[in-house]
Design goal:
single chain, alpha+beta, 3-stranded antiparallel sheet, 15% strand, globular, DUF2252
Length: 468
């Protein structure tokens, strides 16, 4: 029946279109926004020291004392190495169910600059060892809590640390809202270059900051680092040793191990890159100690030389184990954990080193079956230091918040995240509370580890050389 067919005494009313609640607002029922601020140590369900020690099984035993020593150095170095502890803690609380490709270890110093394949300096996340699909707020909480831990470590007041938390969160929320209104292809094209970073970081009297950063980046290349890392022995270049942090530990099997690992790596890269790599010969490799949380994982620095010119190319081959989140969120869909890291990196970053790939090695003598990922060593990487970031922490946190929002918007439902966060201060206030409370928890966990080290319960070596 049409409107014209209706009887005069009948009022025709258009039926209202039912409103379907958005996923973001539905998630507020799962985790009310103020609940994000709660931290209850009594419900964490694990012992932090035992969680750290449980990670020893897949690591080189002779390097564990270095790991313990570095983590026991301060609450900040502990936080850097304790992603597994925080993963268990985050998993002890309800989550929103709004999933993204998590970085997994988005603390404030895991953001940095490097040169894209197009040779532009890009500011982005830079560590993906723990990447896995998971709740967006887990990455956000690890990032924001790190600001308080870093502030305290550098003598910055609690109020200044909390100001940084607010700045980081507000920029995350602001850009997530913007991404939710953009075509997805534009989100994927978006990136933060050096000019944008400088706008976040510099003051009016810091006009030369961008030139300084670019100057540092140009020195951090394979050619630049070769001047510090290489020596010539009987007419052949070798990587210099600095035991126990850089050693030729592969022994008599070095040549065979290197051949197998690089052959499998070649299979993981596109044809055009494999063609480029055929122009190089593998010349040398050393075992390397890197970072804090990675210490004990087998990392090899490999020197390749171009046959025609002798131009050096350094590739880092780094062991990849299961993400610390897999026991709570389920196993990765990738059989090789190196592939998990690389594929997650491609999904998160706006531009990725063209040399990334993965490989594996079955070490029969040690009964080990190891996965690795491969990346270019250095290539313009400018990694911030805590003492340099601390004086400008709120501004640097704002830049990181922008990066994290873009990373999450690439893989997740930006509209759902924006709708969950809303426009009020509820989430901001809650995350400030959580960040300070979790920094307290981190300090207590560090004290537990430091006590075990001091009493000789676990082996420790405090050496921390300058790493070129």
């Amino acid at each position: 029946m049409t409107d014209l067919d209706a009887r005069p005494d009948q009022q025709v009313i258009d039926a209202p279109v039912p409103e379907h609640p958005s996923p973001g607002r539905e998630s507020r029922k799962l985790v009310p926004r103020r609940e994000l601020g709660r931290w209850n140590p009594a419900k964490r369900g694990h012992d932090s020291l035992q969680t750290i020690l449980a990670q020893s099984d897949i690591r080189a035993p002779d390097l564990l004392p270095i790991r313990h020593g570095r983590m026991s150095h301060s609450p900040w170095t502990y936080y850097r190495g304790a992603a597994a502890v925080m993963a268990a803690d985050l998993a002890s609380t309800p989550h929103t169910g709004i999933m993204v490709q998590m970085c997994g270890d988005a603390h404030v110093l895991n953001y940095g600059l490097w040169t894209s394949p197009e040779r532009h300096l890009i500011f982005d996340l830079r560590d993906f060892d723990e990447t896995l699909p998971g709740p967006f707020e887990w990455d956000l909480k690890r990032f924001l809590a790190s600001l308080i831990v870093l502030a305290r470590d550098n003598g910055i007041s609690e109020s200044a640390g909390q100001e940084a938390v607010r700045a980081g969160y507000r920029n995350y929320r602001k850009h997530m809202q913007a991404y939710s209104e953009m075509p997805q292809i534009d989100v994927w094209y978006d990136k933060i270059d050096i000019e944008q970073l400088v706008q976040y970081a510099k003051k009016e009297n810091e006009e030369k900051l961008d030139a300084l950063i670019e100057s540092r980046a140009k020195k951090r290349t394979s050619r630049g680092v070769s001047k510090k890392l290489l020596t010539t022995v009987e007419g052949r270049r070798q990587i210099t040793e600095d035991p126990p942090y850089r050693t030729h530990r592969l022994g008599d099997a070095a040549e065979e191990i290197l051949r197998v690992v690089l052959a499998k790596y070649h299979e993981s890269v596109p044809d055009h890159l494999e063609n480029l790599l055929t122009r190089y010969d593998a010349v040398d490799a050393v075992r390397q100690v890197v970072g804090v949380g990675s210490v004990g994982m087998r990392v090899f620095l490999t020197l390749l030389e171009e046959r025609r010119s002798g131009d050096p190319l350094f590739l880092q081959v780094k062991q990849a184990g299961p993400s610390v989140y897999e026991q709570f969120l389920g196993k990765s869909k990738y059989d090789n954990h190196g592939a998990r890291v690389v594929q997650g990196q491609h999904l998160i970053q706006s531009a990725t080193d063209m040399f990334v790939g993965w490989t594996s090695f079955q070490w029969a003598e040690l009964d080990l079956d190891l996965d690795f990922y491969v990346r270019q060593f250095r290539d313009g990487k400018v990694i911030p230091k805590g003492e340099g970031v601390a004086p400008v922490l709120p501004r640097f946190a704002a830049a990181c918040g922008h990066v994290l929002a873009r990373a999450h918007a690439r893989s997740g439902d930006s509209a759902a995240i924006a709708d969950y966060l809303g426009n009020s201060d509820k989430v901001e206030d809650a995350l400030v509370d959580f960040s300070s409370a979790y920094a307290d928890q981190n300090a207590a966990d560090h004290a537990q580890l430091a006590k075990a080290v001091a009493e000789g319960v676990i082996p420790s070596e405090r050496g921390w050389p300058d790493i070129p």
